[in-house]
Amino acid sequence: MSGNIATVGYGLAAIGPAIGVGIVVGKTIEGVARQPELAGRLQVLMWIGIAFTEALAFIAIATPFIF
């Protein structure tokens, strides 16, 4: 039974990073539409934001193994 609960728990934990990545990408597109000359800089910042957001998913994967 604990395996099934862990699977559901990870599924719920993956929703947060997915929403976060969607917001980061959406705001980057909005920023490029407003300031096209900053597209390169905004894209770099977008990838950094995605990396930090996805780190939450990796922490969620590792947490059951730690505890």
From TrEMBL:
* Family of this protein: Belongs to the ATPase C chain family.
Q: Does the keyword Cell division apply?
A: no
Q: Which CDD domains match?
A: ATP-synt_Fo_c
Topological relation to the membrane, as annotated = Multi-pass membrane protein
Its chief place of residence is membrane
Query: Which part of the chain is the V-ATPase proteolipid subunit C-like domain?
Result: 6-63
Q: Where is the signal peptide?
A: none
Q: Where in the cell is it found?
A: Cell membrane; Membrane
- Site description Reversibly protonated during proton transport, residues in chain: 54
Which organism was this protein described from? Leucobacter allii
From which domain of life does this come?
Answer: Bacteria
Descriptive protein name: ATP synthase subunit c
Q: Function of this protein?
A: Key component of the F(0) channel; it plays a direct role in translocation across the membrane. A homomeric c-ring of between 10-14 subunits forms the central stalk rotor element with the F(1) delta and epsilon subunits. F(1)F(0) ATP synthase produces ATP from ADP in the presence of a proton or sodium gradient. F-type ATPases consist of two structural domains, F(1) containing the extramembraneous catalytic core and F(0) containing the membrane proton channel, linked together by a central stalk and a peripheral stalk. During catalysis, ATP synthesis in the catalytic domain of F(1) is coupled via a rotary mechanism of the central stalk subunits to proton translocation.
InterPro entries referenced in this protein's UniProt entry, alphabetically: ATP_synth_csu_bac/chlpt (IPR005953), ATP_synth_F0_csu (IPR000454), ATP_synth_F0_csu_DDCD_BS (IPR020537), ATP_synth_F0_csu_sf (IPR038662), ATPase_proteolipid_c-like_dom (IPR002379), F/V-ATP_Csub_sf (IPR035921)
Per UniProt, which keywords does this protein have? ATP synthesis, Cell membrane, CF(0), Hydrogen ion transport, Ion transport, Lipid-binding, Membrane, Transmembrane, Transmembrane helix, Transport
Please indicate if the UniProt record lists Transport as a keyword.
Answer: yes
Q: Which Pfam families match?
A: ATP-synt_C
**Transmembrane region positions?**
6-25, 45-66
HAMAP family the UniProt entry points to? ATP_synth_c_bact (MF_01396)
